[in-house]
Amino acid sequence: MNSSKSPGLAGFGILKNTTCHTEKKISVFFSIIFMTVGILSNSLAIAILLKAYQRFRQKSKASFLLLASGLVVTDLFGHLINGAIAVFVYASDKDWIRFNQSNILCSVFGICMVFFGLCPLFLGSVMAVERCIGVTKPIFHSTKMTSKHVKMMLTMVCLFAVLIALLPILRFRAYQIQASRTWCFYKTEHVEDWEDRFYLLLFSCLGLLALAISFLCNAVTGITLLRVKFKSQQRQGRSHHFEMIIQLLAIMCVSCICWSPFLVTMARIGINDSHSKETCETILFALRMATWNQILDPWVYILLRKAVLKNLYKITRGCCGAHIVNLHMWELSSIKNSLKVAAISESPVSSKQINLQPFSSMGQ
Prior knowledge:
With 364 residues, this protein is mainly α.
């Protein structure tokens, strides 16, 4: 019987030859620790982002904060659902035959692994695109990127990730219990059917594409801000974007470091099919690297805030002395000047003066 087309037996074929073993006590301990730290970190980040969203609700930063909140909420539910299932599997001594007779738990686990893997990557790329538009096309951003449009984008991203996760189920292809017997995913051993290879390549290509889009958009945004910064002091009203760009760059670096091993491993398995040399230990290590992404993401918003960075700068200045002060004096003065220019340009008095300038020049 073809195990890939029989949902009731698909997940148990791998249990006959298990080539990868994990220590039960250590694995349960680390699973609980990771899940707890992830939940607490994401909860703290959500509180910080919601507080910031209330402050900047009517400004251009609101759309970025809304997308960031969606990313952190996704990571939080990923920890809750995937972590709870993983702890249950370890606590049950990985006896899938006993508690997964109908393969329902493995299917749910596989769907959650795909969804909570792709959705944060998609949201990270959408955030990078949003900031790129906000910096390069500010008028279009202020008129089109409203809160309603951002919520629609969040919904579309989540629905697309759900569709990718449900695709094997819709095609009557069951998710497989992996060789370590601790998680479920697409078929990664003895991949011979084109459809099994397609799912692996689709997952890895979408993830790598999201990382590439994030890199390109962040590069364009950074170059644009630097050009404006060095070109003229009078056009630096956009300096408030730098905090968001720093956070985006940190998210991109964390995602690349954590997700690249797993995405590349899945792509190699899909390309090399039955001749793949990827071992169970390699796949498990890449998976654990990917799970760190959901733990590190919230700390980007917790640590890389203006107040925290300002305190770190004060501590560094106190430790290193006047050398650091001289090194960063020009940068701090330029940021202050740009904030003053932004405040003046937004005031009604300055707008009246700007409107009266043509008439004064005509009178002269």
